[in-house]
Design goal:
There is one protein chain. This protein has helices spanning about 200-215, 260, 365; strands at about 5-10, 20-35, 45-50, 55-60, 65, 70-75, 80-85, 90-95, 100, 105-120, 125-135, 140, 145, 170-175, 175-190, 225-230, 235-240, 250, 265, 270-280, 285-295, 300-315, 315-325, 335-340, 345-360. The protein is about 5% helix and about 50% strand. With about 375 residues, it is mainly beta. The radius of gyration is 23 Å and the shape is elongated. The protein has two domains: about 1-175, no CATH class; about 175-190 and about 200-370, Immunoglobulins (Immunoglobulin-like), CATH 2.60.40.10.
């Protein structure tokens, strides 16, 4: 018997969609979250997860999704979740010539992938959404222990058999319905003619749109639900619960299409939206700072120091500002910083500080893989 891994199949379409988004692909079966990177040729150790320990887990699952509005561009990403364990798992002994690849698996679970193109003022947000539904099933832990691993050349005993131990343990965990939104680009669909949108109305529309894209089509899961949104570098900003004062609490939405292949926040030249989304807060205002460095310059310089519009609705906080990068040459770079404050002018959670580049990458160049 081999290692326990995800084992699923794709449900044939077409799938029922709605006005908010298109249900693009559906998968059903067993889905397994690796409990870390595993232990290869252990060297007499053990594996333990303690009760109350929090770990960031990523589902061993990927699916290629064409980017709406971007022919020739595909993305592939697994479902992530930050989980706090309700019980101890292990200790599981790992001998000096053993390997272990522990997993937490859910039988008869489902993954849905949605894609969408939604207008926000004079722009259009392209995005896809992943949803993991355990369907009320508890996740069971498995050691995936490989005793006397043949890949451990220095200690493997060729006279002894290698029988993989995939016995289910009694440890089990409950996961909620997990929804993660992956923004791709926020591109103009109408000329600005030199005018900026009403920033407060735009912030409100952004919050409402994000809430709709994260909303469930079905009845609420019996195990609850959680939702997040990814930054350009792939990190997930969770939108449920209170903001963590030690980690960023907002995700800046990519404006340029090249954010996807470059894994960094990009802005096109011209008047572009600087938009961030996070969990609902009591924010009364937001201070925006943009520092830039053009090719040939040695230091960052002030470009924008203003207040951005902020609005909280339906569990979402959205920040909106339109910056004019028309005079900056391509390949200029910089930093965007956002700080939220409450009505008493006290800072809320952790300030967001993210690098960016100015990149007038056209759709044609993205399609060509440049």
């Amino acid at each position: 018997m081999g290692l326990i891994r995800s084992e699923y199949h794709e449900v044939p379409g077409p799938h029922k969609g709605n006005w908010r988004r298109e249900l693009f692909r559906v998968f059903e079966g067993r889905f397994c979250f690796p409990l870390g990177v595993g232990i290869h040729c252990g060297g007499a150790t053990n594996f333990t997860i303690t009760e109350g320990e929090t770990r960031s887990l990523e589902l061993a699952f990927t699916a290629s999704v064409p980017v709406p509005g971007s022919p020739g561009v595909n993305i592939s990403k697994g479902v992530e979740y930050t989980h706090t364990f309700t019980q101890q798992i292990g200790p599981w002994e790992v001998g000096k010539c053993d390997s272990m690849y522990p997993v937490l698996c859910f039988d008869s679970a489902e993954v849905r992938i949605y894609r969408s193109r939604r207008p926000i003022r004079r722009y259009e947000l392209s995005a896809f959404t992943e949803r993991f539904d355990p369907r009320g099933n508890r996740g069971w832990a498995d050691k995936n222990l490989v005793p006397n691993d043949p890949e451990c050349d220095e200690c493997h005993d060729q006279k002894m058999p290698t029988i993989i131990d995939t016995t289910r343990t009694r440890a089990s965990e409950v996961f909620p319905l997990i929804t993660v939104l992956h923004p791709i680009a926020l591109l103009p669909i109408a000329p600005s003619n030199g005018y900026r949108d009403d920033p407060q109305a735009a912030a409100q529309e952004t919050a409402e749109t994000i809430a709709q894209l994260l909303g469930s089509d079905d009845a609420e899961s019996s195990t609850g639900s959680t939702a997040g949104i990814t930054r350009s570098d792939g990190a997930v900003i969770w939108l449920t619960g209170s903001p963590n004062p030690s980690v960023p609490n907002l995700a800046l939405l990519p404006s340029g299409l090249s954010s996807l292949p470059r894994q960094i926040l990009t802005f096109d030249q011209g008047l572009v939206p600087v938009v961030a989304v996070g969990a609902a807060t009591e924010a009364a205002r937001c201070e925006l700072t943009i520092l830039v460095q053009t090719p040939g310059e040695d230091d960052l310089r002030d470009f924008v120091r203003e207040e951005a519009a902020v609005h909280s609705a339906e569990g979402i906080t959205a920040v909106w500002y339109e910056a004019d990068f028309a005079e900056l040459p391509g390949d200029s770079s910089g930093i965007v910083q956002l700080e939220l404050y409450d009505v008493n002018n006290h800072p809320i959670a952790y300030p967001v500080r993210e690098s960016f580049v100015i990149d007038p990458l056209s759709l044609a160049r993205v399609s060509e893989g440049v």
